[in-house]
Design goal:
Number of domains: 2
Strand order of the largest sheet: 1-2-3-5-4-6-7
CATH architecture of the largest domain: 3-Layer(aba) Sandwich
Order of helices and strands: HEHHEHEEHHEHEHEHHHHH
CATH topology of the largest domain: Rossmann fold
Number of helices: 13
Shape: globular
Strand content: 5-15%
Oligomer: single chain
Structural class: alpha/beta
Radius of gyration: 24 Å
């Protein structure tokens, strides 16, 4: 596959599955029989008990489904790793918010093959199979039955590329009506206009001829959870030797070796677009990060090798956690393209699809200092505010609190945290909460927090009154 360089086109004018709660220490479970008449029951307002319940209280209290005066027994709680917060006296100095710059070795070149430790930069299917089997083994017995299927699935060799494009280039390639109708996130003057999108693309290669497989070939868009660091992106961390330097993106090999051109977007604000805004759980950002790359890939493949290979317009879309949320957005964006494009399969897992509902539950938890990963919400505080140019909104009310949009103190400015690309570990000592200072919800707009908490309380009263009738 030969990808032409990104065309120079004159610029046109002018919401996770969240991790389980951490073990905050052993507390004896509340005594049985505390519930009184009226639901929600009294045990829903007891001190949090994370040893017994992953949410600190029975799950029925969270979802307003308690139907008994008897306190539910302890629930099974998953164990997992939680970073230990940094003591308050070790809060990072403002130097942490210095000028952000790419890695010393720089970024990989756009529209080029990514060098590999194997001949002709082609990863043999035998190596791909061994890596995938090793990945499954690392999960223990949970996926053991799937391992037997891998040898049949691993049919092709794989070659990695970095592809870049822009709204302007893709608009110039679009045939038909105004592309603004099918790619509204790319119309002139939009947040994505003038930016460079990049993505890792894995190309299936015939192991016998060492040439791209011929015929109509499907495409897969594989979405991953981003990190605050813009340089931990697929095109940057993809290793030269996947056998000796595994990364979390390796499972995407399963789609490529099975015979699909597999796209893993870097997501706007990362890799090639690192100087720009970095948003989190914003649908249009994921759409803009994937669809232009898909269109450029089709244009490049369909016109290469004498037309022996053609990208099918049926697309499979995959994602987990934040990537699952992205998958839903990308699936919708592919369908909007029309012109024969359709997502035929979308696999989503562990994703906060109902983001508004998830946010409300988290806000209540944060107001009680019982949310395990407030760094997620710090990223949302940066994204879901009138300060974010990636958000198409006329609202002037920021989701973040004014205290954490302090223009004079970068350690209390969520926008600066995102701009500096500080890691989750570096955020922990800056976040308010029981292990540092204040209350977790201090990072959010206080009016919004009060509205959510009061509304939840009123709902509790109404529910209780109906049960007492």
């Amino acid at each position: 596959m030969t990808i032409p360089p990104k065309e120079e086109v004159d610029e046109a004018g002018p919401s996770t599955t969240f991790p389980p709660r951490p073990d905050l220490g052993t507390k004896p479970p509340p005594n049985e029989g505390l519930a009184t008449a009226g639901i929600p029951a009294e045990y829903c307002s007891l001190d949090s008990n994370y040893t017994c319940y992953s949410a600190g209280v029975p799950s029925c209290c969270i979802f307003d489904t308690c139907n008994s005066q008897q306190q539910p027994p302890c629930e099974e709680i998953e164990t997992y790793f939680v970073s230990t917060p940094v003591p308050p006296d070790e809060v990072p100095l403002p130097e942490l918010f210095g000028e952000l710059s790419p890695p010393k070795e720089g970024l990989r070149a756009c529209n080029e093959v990514i060098p590999s430790a194997y001949p002709d930069n082609i990863i043999p299917r035998e190596v791909v199979l061994a890596v995938l089997e090793g990945t499954i083994d690392s999960f223990g017995e949970a996926f053991a039955s799937f391992k037997a299927l891998l040898s049949a699935m691993a049919e092709y060799d794989v070659r990695a590329h970095k592809i870049c494009t822009s709204c302007e280039e893709v608009f110039s390639l679009w045939e038909g009506d105004d592309a603004s109708d099918v790619m509204p996130y790319c119309k002139p003057g939009s947040f994505a206009s003038g930016r460079t999108f990049s993505a890792l693309v894995l190309e299936p290669i015939d192991p016998a001829t060492k040439a791209p497989i011929a015929g109509k070939v499907a495409a897969t868009v594989w979405n991953w959870a981003t990190r605050p660091d813009p340089f931990y992106a697929p095109t940057i961390v993809w290793p030269n030797d996947i056998a000796t330097s595994p990364v979390e993106y390796l499972p995407v090999l399963s789609a490529a070796t099975a015979g699909t051109y597999t796209i893993i977007p870097d997501v706007l604000g990362n890799a090639e677009d690192w100087p720009s805004t970095r948003s989190y759980v914003v649908k249009d950002v994921y759409s803009a990060s994937a669809v232009p790359i898909l269109l450029k890939l089709k244009n490049a493949i369909d016109g290469a090798d004498g037309g022996c290979t053609e990208i099918d317009k049926r697309v499979s879309i995959v994602g987990y956690s934040e990537g699952g949320y992205a998958a839903v957005a990308v699936a919708n964006a592919v369908d909007i393209l029309n012109d024969g494009w359709v997502h035929t399969h979308t696999a989503v897992a562990g994703a906060p699809i109902k983001l508004a509902t998830a946010q409300l539950e988290v806000i209540v938890d944060m107001s009680k200092d019982r949310y395990p990963f407030p760094a997620f919400i710090a990223r949302l505080g940066n994204s879901y505010s009138s300060t974010n140019p990636d958000m198409a909104t006329d609202a002037q009310q920021p989701f973040a609190s004014l205290e954490y949009l302090d223009e004079d103190d970068p350690t209390k400015n969520l926008i600066e945290w995102a701009r500096a690309g500080i890691s989750y570990e570096e955020m922990f000592p800056l976040l308010p909460g029981p292990d540092t200072f204040g209350t977790q919800s201090d990072i959010l707009n206080s009016d919004f927090v009060k509205m959510v908490v009061v509304s939840r309380f009123l709902l509790w009263i109404v529910s209780a009154s109906f049960e007492l009738r």
